[in-house]
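Morning!

This is the sequence you dropped in the shared folder:
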Amino acid sequence: MIELFWGGYRLAFHKHMGNEYFSSLMCTLGCYFTFQLLIMVSASRTNEMAKKVQNTLQCLKYRFSRDLRETKLQEVCTKESNLTLWKIYVVDRSLLITSFGTLLTYGILIGTLGEAT
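The structure's back. C-alpha cells below.
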C-alpha cells in the first residue's frame, strides 16, 4: 500500500516525466493495485463465505443425528473464525473502499503541503 501511495504521488506531482518513466510507473502501480485488490477481495469473500456456511449449518442443524449435533456441529457453530487485520478489524468489502479513500486523501494532503500559495 505504501508503494501504491508513493507511485500515485509521483504520478500526480512529478513535473517533467519521460515516456519510459511514465510507462514503468504505470506498470508498477498496476501491479501493486492488482496485488492489493487480489488480497483484499479474496479475504473479504472468504469471510462472507464463512458466515454463509455457518448460517447454513444453523439451518440444517436439526437434520443431523443427535450425537453429531451435540459434538461436531456444536463445535463448528460456536467457533468464530474470521480473517482480520491484527485481530483489530474484520476484513470486509468496505475496507477496500476505505483503504483507497485513505490513499487518495493522504496523497492530496501531502501534495498540497509542498505548494506555495
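Headline: Residues 5 and 106 are 8 Å apart (CA to CA).

More detail when I'm at my desk.
O.
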